[in-house]
């Protein structure tokens, strides 16, 4: 099976951003492999959590402190979709295929 790995880069507030994302996802992060990186703003991360409850939890946690985004709503492709811009400028999109209760 194919995998996609996403690398996030932050200017000056990396530790704060990583601690926030670690608290949301309950995971650890790898440190840089020593490369100089060009910082850009052209990345959106799409997540497809297994359940609607997990989708709603992640969307709420990542949206905290931001009013930019869209709540979960039914879409023509058969999923509920929502998005947010977190406080570190990362655009998160969510597809949830579990129907609303």
Structure description:
By secondary structure, the protein is of the alpha+beta class. The protein has helices at residues 14-25, 52-63, and strands at 44-47, 69-74, 80-85, 91-96. 24% of the residues lie in helices and 22% in strands. It has a four-stranded mixed sheet, with helices on one face. A hairpin with a 5-residue loop joins strand 3 and strand 4. The chain is elongated. The termini are far apart.
Which descriptors would you attach to this protein?
101 residues; alpha+beta; 4-stranded mixed beta sheet; elongated
CATH third-tier fold name of the domain at 48-101: Signal recognition particle alu RNA binding heterodimer, srp9/1
Structural class: alpha+beta
What is the highest CATH level, the class of the domain at 48-101?
Answer: Alpha Beta
Helix content: 10-25%
Biggest beta-sheet profile: 4 strands, mixed
Topology as H/E string? HEHEEE
Shape field: elongated
Count the beta strands: 4
């Amino acid at each position: 099976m194919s995998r996609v790995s996403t690398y996030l880069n932050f200017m000056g507030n990396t530790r704060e951003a990583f601690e926030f994302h670690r608290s949301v996802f309950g995971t650890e992060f790898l440190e840089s492999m020593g490369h100089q990186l060009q910082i850009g703003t052209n990345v959106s991360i799409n997540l497809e959590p297994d359940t609607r409850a997990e989708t709603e939890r992640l969307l709420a946690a990542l949206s905290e402190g931001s009013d930019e985004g869209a709540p979960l709503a039914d879409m023509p492709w058969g999923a509920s979709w929502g998005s947010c811009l977190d406080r570190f400028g990362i655009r998160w999109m969510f597809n949830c295929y579990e129907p609303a209760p």
